[in-house]
């Protein structure tokens, strides 16, 4: 009996220099290693992917990644989201599935990446995969933390920077927060990027809302993850304290 051929999984980490809250964020050094390479090395260590690249619009990021032993690809500076940048990079890369890891997730768990890669085969051409974890009360009221509401099948109903769902009568409700990782089949990535940027995406500045606005299904893995996504200087200071101890 013929053994089914293993599907190829490509990991692409989009990175741009012009972050509004932390300019040059991918190149910020922590313990002598640029932030983008912390994420890259987690992806490598997971052994979950057949190929790993950084997709960037800046030669400084490309050269830094290459200097530290990674592989980087140049893409257009005109993309409205990281997934659009990933889509451009994938045009010349063979692969059946693609995983987009946000470059500011330096502590993304290796075990989670392994499980995530295994779950990609459940996707069809009109769905994608992401992760959520439990949010604290502080997270719920922090607009830099993206909240998620799921249905009974662990599919996303909505993502927002606002504290959703709202706890009426002063109920201290804690829900889920989003983790910056997306998985697509090659076909569902093409579908996502064929849609124009939606109104909800523009309002919240959240690319995953494009998928929901056009009727795609977002499957959510619930993971016990307490790492730090680097969005602000405060996040960066917290991460430095975690890894440098001062």
Describe the structure.
The chain is α/β, with parallel strands linked by helices. The chain has one domain: Spore Coat Polysaccharide Biosynthesis Protein SpsA, Chain A. It is built from nine helices and eleven strands. Strands 1, 4, 5, 6, 7, 8, 9, 10 and 11 form a nine-stranded mixed beta sheet that branches. A hairpin with a 2-residue loop joins strand 2 and strand 3.
Keywords:
246 residues; globular; 11 strands; single chain; nine-stranded mixed sheet
Q: What's the CATH architecture name?
A: Alpha-Beta Complex
By CATH, the topology is Spore Coat Polysaccharide Biosynthesis Protein SpsA, Chain A
Q: What's the number of domains?
A: 1
Structural class by helix and strand composition: alpha/beta
Round the Cα radius of gyration to an integer and report it.
Answer: 18 Å
Q: First CA to last CA: what distance?
A: 58 Å
Main sheet characteristics: 9 strands, mixed
**Structure summary, number of beta strands:** 11
Q: Overall pLDDT, averaged?
A: 92
Strand content: 15-25%
Morphology: globular
CATH class division: Alpha Beta
Q: How many helical elements?
A: 9
Order of helices and strands: EEEHEHEHEHEHEEEHHHEH
User: Which blocks of ≥5 consecutive residues have pLDDT under 50?
Assistant: none
CATH homologous superfamily assignment: Spore Coat Polysaccharide Biosynthesis Protein SpsA, Chain A
Helix content: 25-40%
